[in-house]
Write a structure and sequence with these properties.
- The protein is an alpha/beta fold.
- The relative contact order is 0.13.
- A 7-stranded mixed β-sheet has the order 1-7-6-5-4-2-3, sandwiched between helices.
- It folds into 2 domains: about 5-250, Type I PLP-dependent aspartate aminotransferase-like (Major domain) (Aspartate Aminotransferase, domain 2); about 250-340, Aspartate Aminotransferase, domain 1.
- The protein starts with 8 loop residues before the first helix and ends with a helix.
- The longest helix has 23 residues, at about 250-270.
- It has helices spanning about 10, 50-60, 75-85, 105-110, 130-135, 155-165, 220-230, 235-245, 250-270, 295-305, 330-340; strands at about 70-75, 95-100, 115-120, 140-145, 170-175, 195-200, 215, 275-280, 285-290, 310, 320-325.
- Strand 2, helix 4 and strand 3 (about 115-120) form a beta-alpha-beta unit.
- The protein is built from 11 helices and 11 strands.
Length: about 350
Amino acid sequence: MDINKLVRKNIQQLRPYSSARDEFEGEASIFLDANENPYDTDYNRYPDPHQKQLKKRISELKKVNEEQIFLGNGSDEAIDLLLRAFCEPGKDEVLIPQPTYGMYAVSASINDVKINSASLTEDFDIDPEATLSAITPQTKIIFLCSPNNPSGNLLTKEKVIEVIKSFVGLVVVDEAYIDFTNSLSLTESLNQYKNLVVLQTLSKAWGLAGLRLGICFASKEIISVINKIKPPYNISSVTQSLALERLQQVEIKNQQVKEIVDQREIMKARLSESKIVEHVYRSDSNFLLVQVKNTKKVYENLLTKGIVLRDRSNVILCNDCLRITIGTSKENQLLLDELKKL
């Protein structure tokens, strides 16, 4: 597959901005190239525009070549840049099986890209036949979320691969919650499928939501296109430093993930026993989608107790559902105690 044929013509012809640090390689002690304040404030120098150290560490952890990694201000930046690079406004289209993460549609709308939908199955899995039949000649990107949000389940890998193999555009698989599963990441298939893009994040399992650092894995060719249009210094020095520090703490992260997964299973069992709970859906993430009686009343009552859940009852296939993030054992018990009183 020739990725360049999918890229917007004006992006193909674009001469990217070259920052001062793009034009310099090696070591130096005196920097008079970037119009910075010369007095040390810890942050008076621009950050590394290519995040070399951070990408090196991610490469080691994920077993992916550094040239196949893009780092963004949250995964949302990668989503936006993919749309801007590959979708002609007012002409091209994306396909988003529903229900799923809402930012795919928001970003597409912002970029004036038409959104086509296909429904997931009743158990929130991808339906390859329905998905592929919704493709039009203008479809450039398919967005999939696995584990899916708001349902929490992994999409069947074989079905995702079927879509990837059958589509000539990009298939973006968002794996924000992959660390809470026993499944291997699709990053292992990057070299096999040149149209595959995998999104991950440090916001969930790594506990760095406040830093806003998203990771995009793709072919060298796709990453090159995204780098061409990204802001020159999109990841701050503070974010790079703190993320690098956290990525050395693999054992701590793994222990926290184990505790969250253990609590997820406890909560699933306990919630299933509740008289107000109709159904608890299977989850491979750090949250549960739960169908309850009198959804609005339950949600609002819990708010008065200082407990905030996410009401998803207005989302397709999620009638009367609340999404419950797995908290600490103490937080989870407080929720269960309040539910008993309803």
